[in-house]
Amino acid sequence: MPTLNDYLILSAILFAIGTAGVLIRRNIITILLSVEIMLNAVNLSFVAFGRSFGTADGQIIVFFVMTVAAAEAAVGLAIVIALFRHRESLNPATFTSLKW
Amino acid sequence: MTITPLLIAQIVLTLFVFVMLLNSAAVMVYVERKVAALLQQRLGPYLVGPKGMLQPLADIIKLMFKEELRPKAADWLLFGLAPIISAACAFAAFAVVPFGADTTFFGLLKEPLRLQVADVNVAVLVIFAIASMSVYGIVLAGWSSNSKYSLLGGLRSSAQMISYELSYGLALAAVLLLGNTLSLSGIVNAQAGTWFGFLPRWFVFLQPVGFLIYFTAGVAETNRAPFDFPEAEQELVAGYHTEYSSMSFAMFFLAEYVNMVTVSAVATNLFLGGWHGPFLPESLGWIWFLIKVGALLFFYVWMRWTLPRYRYDQLMKFGWKVLLPIAVINLLVTAAGVLYFGA
Amino acid sequence: MTLFYLFGAVAVIASLLVISQRNPIYSVLLLIASFGALSGLYVMLEAPFVAVTQIIVYAGAIMVLFLFVVMLLNAPHEETEQDERLHAFRRQGPFRFGAALAIALAVELTWALTRVSGSETGGGFPAEAVSSVQAIGKVLFTDYAFPFEVTSVLILVAMVGAVVLAKRDA
User: Are B254 and B283 in contact (CB under 8 A)?
Assistant: First the structure.
């Protein structure tokens, strides 16, 4: 039977993978996907803790996190589309016009 | 994992459901062509077998012998994956649909086995989830064929499916208020019995608008009848499955017919009382189930060959500006009714 | 337990492939596979509602949105040829740095999380699970009614924002 620690270690590994994706990749859409990986890792922690305390709160917080992730993905992708129309590139390094 | 008769019965039931779904797709091919022919006052298939009943077999053999084309610029992995996703999701949705009461197969089993592959607590949500997943088969088919007709057809079709999923879910939610449970067997069992001795307690009498919304959304989800613009033969060659041939095309066809059967089966369970019916004992309830599903499938075919097709923007306008508000109002009225009558 | 390892391995491997694929469409599809594995883990944690909602919302809606955007932008693959020629030095640096940071983060998180749950919950889940949708609904609409309403406003704002941001001028 998997213990709480097992779920938390899995969640930590997934979170680290998501962070690596955000740091390493140079494609905005893949960066957004890595943020989704991080949010999912946190969801797993919430549900695991909720289960271990025997309340429904963990699952409810996950419900809200999913909703917020959906809203953030929608707005983020809209921004990506607007940016792409400007520079025809998805590399974040091309959007440096505010650099001093 | 001990090998009990119950386990063997479950495995046999799973295989039986799978084979029957394949057969139902074949039967639907024949029924569609024959009914279409009769509606158009011609004969339809009549050469192959008695009254043309072996026509689907001839179709399948023809499809198997066709050359499997693969456009050179197509992304081969996604190209091969798309029909698999479509067909798999179509079959998977039927896993939680019950089609008969608990039965012991004439006393062969010690405990009754419900005629349902998987009795899940959240069965209604599972069906909705798998309907959401079947969008991917179409989107990937459209993209990976690398042809403009396919891409347009694929994107339009998936946008249509996503838009009508909202009304689908809201109609489901209204039924959940009446049935008070998310499990499909629970909802069917809440429709047992009759009012005044002759009117069966089906939810369609409590929710006629909900049934119409659900069925309309289901027809749009399966890309059929008046909502099949994305695969219209006249406008878009064949939409997202233009570049497919032979068995991949057969898989898309299979997925479409099995999706039709699933939508009809779920509509029967939610609104028409599932396997409950007069004159027959509970253990033969599956006969009533088949009759009801058959009636809905006939209605599907009837609609396709009678109604003209919606244009794409009319289709989307209808889904968002007409069907969705009606579904929301239906949900509100149902909630008010449940609160007032306390049922 | 084998089921946990199976789902966990699928989730981790799919996530690793997501961040290492060149083609963004493959990344999206692999992420869907990862979500499927996570959904299985939620079922193992006796949270069927969250499992199904994960498929409906994440795998069935958000990822379709990502897929649409990737297909409509028809984005070129990440530039590697130019980088190889010009910025060879700069390419190696961030990659190694990012990977090292991620491994350090994983180790730190593992240490911190297992420290917290050490004694009383380190061995299995003693308490009763709350898995019925009715119980979740009851808590959601009584204790968490205000966040629920705020979330609906949030989604409305996101909808309006997405439409305005992605519109073509004139």
Answer: no
Q: Which residues pair with B103 in a beta bridge?
A: B113
C167 contact partners, CB below 8 Å, separation of at least 6: none
What does the pLDDT read at residue C86? 41
User: pLDDT band at residue C84, thresholds of 50, 70 and 90?
Assistant: very low
The partner residues of B113 in beta bridges, in order of sequence, read B103
What's the CATH code of the domain at A74? 1.10.287.3510
Q: How many domains does chain A have?
A: 1
Q: Which domain covers residue A76, as residue numbers? A: 4-94
Find the residue in C nearest to A71 (Cα). C158
Query: Would you place residue C88 in the very low, low, confident or very high pLDDT band (cuts 50, 70, 90)?
Result: very low
User: Of all residues in chain B, what percent carry a pLDDT higher than 70?
Assistant: 87
Long-range Cβ contacts of A93-97 (<8 Å, 24+ apart): A93/A26
Nearest to C158 among A45, A59, A75 (CB): A75
Asked whether residue A99 is domain-assigned, the answer is no
Q: What is the pLDDT of residue C78?
A: 55
Instruction: Please report the domains of chain C, with CATH numbers, ordered by start residue.
Output: 1-74 (1.20.120.1200), 130-170 (no CATH)
Residue A34 lies in a domain: yes
| B95 three-state secondary structure | helix
Q: Cβ of C42 and A47 within 8 Å?
A: yes
B135: chain C residues, CB-CB within 8 Å: 60, 64
Q: Kindly provide the ipTM of the predicted complex, given to two decimals.
A: 0.90
Is the pLDDT score of C120 beyond 60?
A: no
The span from the CA of B89 to the CA of B269, in Å, is 19
- For C135, counting Cβ atoms within 10 Å of its Cβ (0-12 exposed, 13-18 middle, 19+ buried), the class is middle
